[in-house]
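User: I'm writing a short methods note and want a consistent example. For Glycosyl hydrolase, I'll paste the sequence; you return only the structure tokens, no commentary, since I'll be parsing the reply automatically.
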Amino acid sequence: MPRISILASCAAATLMLGVTGAKAATWSASSPATSSCSSTDLFASWTYGSYTINNDVWSPCSNVAAGAQTIWANTNLDWGVTSDQPNTSGIKSYPHIGYSVNKTISSLSKLSATVSATTPSDGAWESTFDIWAGSNAHEIMVWLNYTGTAAGCGNVKPISYNWTSAGCAIPLHSNVSLSGSTWNVYVGSNGSNTVYSFLRTTKTDNTTVDVLAIMKYLKSLNYFDDVMIGDLQYGFEITSSSGGLSFASKNFAVTAE
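Assistant:
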């Protein structure tokens, strides 16, 4: 066996033992360090009731090598991931939980999501909601905790049309009060769809977000009309987590009425 394959297998095995041995998870999946989009379990998923949990190691499908990653879950209220992503540029994975809303903004009287997370103190990552609307033409990201700054600087930055000479993203809307919190809002394109990033100016791992208020705010600014809200996801967008860092999500639940 080539040396790189041995190392990848050992890394995946170590991650697997470290997570499932401690958690005794109902479901788990491990993907290896790889540059191939066809590698095992990059997009392994598990459905629990109305929720789907996905490993989502997508960078090899965009020609960026990824490290080993193990995801585990017991319920929508208890899941997590250990990820060993190299200290290189570019997002490697978005291990997440998802819920299909499939309702228009006007048809909803309430849309909220609650989460309690455990996140590491180092690495480069953000814990974020990812809300898809208008047949995925619009992507709304709600950053709760992250290793960059609310001013659009640091080792993770939101997608933006506008940048400073120092390489920081420039918010189009600053200190916006929504859902009991204050946000800086960035707008840009990833080449496939428009991305609206709400960076919570006070970082947190534990909160309930009024998603409907965020959608109504964007609609009031004419970014879109009464669009259909599709998937509402929450997870950890990981750029680097060298050596293996662990993240966990507790008590995640969506209320859609």
